[in-house]
Amino acid sequence: MSFGNDDPPAVPQYVAPPAPEEIMDVIDEITGTQSITVIGPDGKKRRKIERLPRTPEEQERFALGEELMTKSINNIKDLYQYNPENVINFEPLLRTFANLNDERANALGQVANIGNIREDIQAFKDMQGALDDDMFRRQNREMEENLGRKGLSDSYAGQEARAFAARNENLYRKQSELNANQYGEDLASKRLGRNAQAFALDETGRAGRLSAAEAEYQLRKDQQADIENKRQTAIGENMNLLKVGSGITRQDLDKALATQAPQIANQTFQMQNADSLQRYTAGVNARNAAYDRERNAYDQRPPTFTDMALRTGAHLLGRQFG
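-> structure tokens emitted (322 positions)
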């Protein structure tokens, strides 16, 4: 029971701290990407970094790059399968050699003895393959570390980066295959040329027919070399087209990988929650300060009539009991 306004100030009541702010979706139109919140199949929220639809101009340029890559890879594959030796007819030359006597046939056998080219080619392929495997393992490890640092390992951009690396690896291995076969062709040609020179030194009595056979053989080799030069030129041209297409698609990928959307979203989320908590704390501190002032004023107020009456009654009552 109170008399007048003698009650102490009420203890302030505090509301619960504010709930965390929702993280803001950020659209990066410069890089054509966005960082958004989506609901997964399990009903849980998750952050997603994805590419925005390309503009018609960007899509046309990207499609051109992919088309150049596809066509050039297919052309290189066809050129690799194309063997100039199947075009040049060596049958007349072989028929001339077959008509020679046993001595000439034995000597000719040494001309055609160019060793086991397949084993030499395979050894070259194995050596090159080991070097390629080591190089691509290192490159893939560096790419995964780079994606991991940027937080893009499980993103669409990361998938595109892996697909692009896989295409480059496939192309590089095809070129290594071409180089190995070219190595075998050059090795066979050199050995065959050396054997032909040795055979010519022993061909004293068969100079006429041998000269004609060598002339015909050389003609066929020149035709074969001409076709091979054209094939290599075509391979080089398609390699240049592949580089152009790869550059276009790589530029598109690099642009997406330069996105700032995830960082901006996280920074905005942190600033919003920090501001909300700061304002909540300021409100609590203001209430506490007001309560302290009221309590201090209450404690320092002069005694009221009610206080003196209560003190007198308590004193008389004590004396009475005493």
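Residues 38 and 238 are 43 Å apart (CA to CA).
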